[in-house]
Specification:
With 135 residues, the protein is mainly β. It contains one helix and nine strands; from the N terminus they run E-E-E-E-E-E-E-E-E-H. Strands 2, 3, 5, 6 and 8 form a five-stranded antiparallel sheet that branches. It has a four-stranded antiparallel sheet with strand order 1-9-4-7, with no helix packed on it.
């Protein structure tokens, strides 16, 4: 069961960048819950986070496997990444871009992390099972 971070907790960024590659080749099930958690922002700035895949941890696809919608505020934002049909992807990494506008200091500053957790098949089966009325 893989449970780690694409961007470690407490990371503060002021410019675009990328996280370290994370090896997912040992995953028993290739569905992952990604949680973008923003813990600190300043006003009038935006954060864009995308997740890229790689077969070898060196060469990265230009096209993101998934992208979180642009964020402006603190909060937790979960997304599912299903790689069951893409066995070539063995590594993931996060890439981010930041932007700030308005008066005062123009350097953006975000504190955030991106958690990665493998989702067991039984959890997905339970979530997709029909529910009885009244439950």
């Amino acid at each position: 069961m893989i449970e780690t971070y694409l961007v470690p907790q407490g990371t503060t960024v002021t410019a675009k960048g990328e996280g370290a590659p994370v090896d997912i080749s040992a995953a028993g099930h290739r569905v992952f819950l990604l949680s973008l958690v923003i813990t600190r922002v300043v006003e009038q700035e935006a954060l864009d986070v995308a997740v890229q895949g790689s077969a070898n941890g060196t060469d990265w696809s230009d096209k993101a496997l998934l992208s979180f919608s642009q964020k402006f505020y603190t909060g937790e934002h979960p997304l599912l990444l299903d790689l069951t049909g893409d066995r070539e992807v063995k590594f993931l990494r996060a890439r981010w871009e930041v932007n700030r506008w308005g008066r005062g200091d123009t350097q953006p500053s975000f504190e955030f992390h991106v958690a990665l957790r493998e989702v067991p098949p039984d959890v997905l089966a339970e979530a997709s099972a029909p529910r009885k009325p009244g439950r």
